[in-house]
Amino acid sequence: MADTAEREDLAEKASEFLLGVLERMGISADIDIKDDNDKTILEIQTKDTEVVIGRRGVVMDALQHLVNKVVYRDRTGDRAKPLVVDAGGFRDKQIERLRSLAQRMGEKALETKQIVELQPMSPHDRRIVHMAIAEMPGLSSRSEGEGEDRHILVVPGEAPAASPTTA
């Protein structure tokens, strides 16, 4: 595992790279680096938060992917903590939205005793929903589909495997 000085160096490298990409996008920003227990957060401070986030966080996810690829491209095996790009508290808000969605769809599955099919979502978002459903008694969940069409089925304990209802 990388030592503290090396993690700080990687975070600085990530911040500089991210600022360069944002500058090329025509976005003026500052980056706050926050060290969390299991990840390093690069919080983008800008008046163009909506542009940085993009629809459903797609721009921010792409920035995060690029940052991690560039910073860790020369490292093999041992990886330091993941670098998470955030803006306007989007990541925490998204987790709450996904947990709320899981709660509502879980209640729907229990009430109707039918499988509830969710819209396709990213692997990260699916993981959050799966974890939230796992905490609810009488429910389970599974992913179905491929690629961008991969989605979650919320399954009540005694649900038949037939025709899901669309959420």
Give a structural overview.
The chain is of the alpha/beta class. It folds into two domains: 4-88, GMP Synthetase, Chain A, domain 3 (2-Layer Sandwich); 93-166, R3H-like domain (Ribosomal Protein S8, Chain: A, domain 1, 2-Layer Sandwich), CATH 3.30.1370. It has helices spanning 4-24, 49-53, 58-72, 90-112, 123-134; strands at residues 30-35, 40-45, 83-87, 116-117, 139-144, 151-156, 165-166. A four-stranded mixed sheet has the order 5-6-4-7. Strand 1 (30-35) and strand 2 (40-45) form a beta hairpin. Helix 1 packs across helix 3 (58-72). The radius of gyration is 19 Å and the shape is elongated. The N and C termini lie far apart (42 Å). Residues 158-163 have low confidence and may be disordered.
Distance between the termini: 42 Å
Radius of gyration over all CA atoms, rounded: 19 Å
Envelope shape: elongated
In CATH, what is the homologous superfamily of the largest domain?
K homology (KH) domain
Largest sheet: 4 strands, mixed
Helical run tally? 5
Number of domains: 2
Q: Could you give the order of the helices and strands?
A: HEEHHEHEHEEE
Ranges with pLDDT <50 over ≥5 residues? 158-163
What is the name of the CATH architecture of the largest domain?
2-Layer Sandwich
Strand order of the largest sheet: 5-6-4-7
- Name the CATH class of the largest domain: Alpha Beta
* Class by SSE composition: alpha/beta
**Might you state the CATH topology name of the largest domain?**
GMP Synthetase, Chain A, domain 3
Q: What is the overall pLDDT average?
A: 89
> Tally of extended strands?
7
- What fraction of the residues are assigned to beta strands by DSSP? 15-25%
Helix content: 40-55%
